[in-house]
Amino acid sequence: MDERFQYKSAQRIFDDIRRIVTKPWTVMCICGGQTHVVVKHELDLALPTQLKLVHGPGCAVCLTPVETVDKALAVTAFPGTILCIPGEILRAPGSAGNLMNSRAAGADIRVVYSPLDAVSIACEHPEAEVVFLAAGFENFAPPTALALYRAHEVGLRNFSVLGQYLRFTPALEELLSTPGNGINGILAAGHASTVAGYGECEPIAERFNTPIVLTGLDPLDIMEATYRCVRQLEDGRAEVESTSTCSTPRKGDPATQFLVDSVFLQAPSRWRSFGDVPAGALRLRSRFAFFDAELRFGLENLTATEPAECLAGAVLRGELQPNDCPCFDDTCTPDHPVGPCMVSSRGACAAHYRYRRGE
Ligand code: SF4
What we know:
five-stranded parallel β-sheet; four-stranded parallel β-sheet; 14 helices; 19% strand
């Protein structure tokens, strides 16, 4: 889009927001990608003072439990193992180091773009145990389900999956049911609801009397979503809607849902920094237990603790800004992260370090 047109459109949306806002409102950007756009383009600073945009828990690397990283590190200690991972998780801190350190020390850790790539590696290396690390939100579950069916079809004995996928709506419910959360409206990530559809947000909007607007990651899209959210709040409505460019379907994709349901089941989960989320994860069904890396490597009981000085939990709940944390830009930097929010390209602390350091 022409830059001048963008500027004019942006100005118009800011003017519209200023015109309609009459009360103090707090709106949460659920997705870490939104947070980076907001901080980079200083969208929050251009809003009227009574309207606050806060960060939310939508960064899968930030939320991947520390014991998952520890289990992945433990897997690499088994001789003849190839660990296949999504690139972002490489620097997520475990209890003692991260996967990047482990790779530098000689472990065979490979970044893959799809779990099907991990299946191909397992076919090419029958002498090795190939483990795919499942990390991310539920929209990453379909390719892993396909990979497991493929592994079953070709009779792979040396392929397994470690980890879990995170479910967005139970976390939203947990967040909004926390007493004193102070959140009036939600900007949700359209891409996170492509499989389930945004219809599953409707009972949440109604139960908590909180408008939810789905948006993409374009700055104008986020501003339009902010306008729509404030419009609902000022009108006393609490509905689910999406911006004009967000194409997330209301009902999701039934065929993909069926595929995912046949491989995974909903299970309670403890999200890193965030806490317990009932039905917050998708884990392998027992019929796929043969491909469960935790069982194969005897890692079910491995536990880990998070660094007490990291305040990422409060950052991910919108209670604190990253620079409220005493570690920010002191003991915690992208080169030496204490918590995962400083590592991930969608982490709120990394966004503030990159764009607002020293302010
Ligand atoms: Fe955790 Fe570092 Fe963020 Fe503080 S600055 S909350 S230690 S990730």
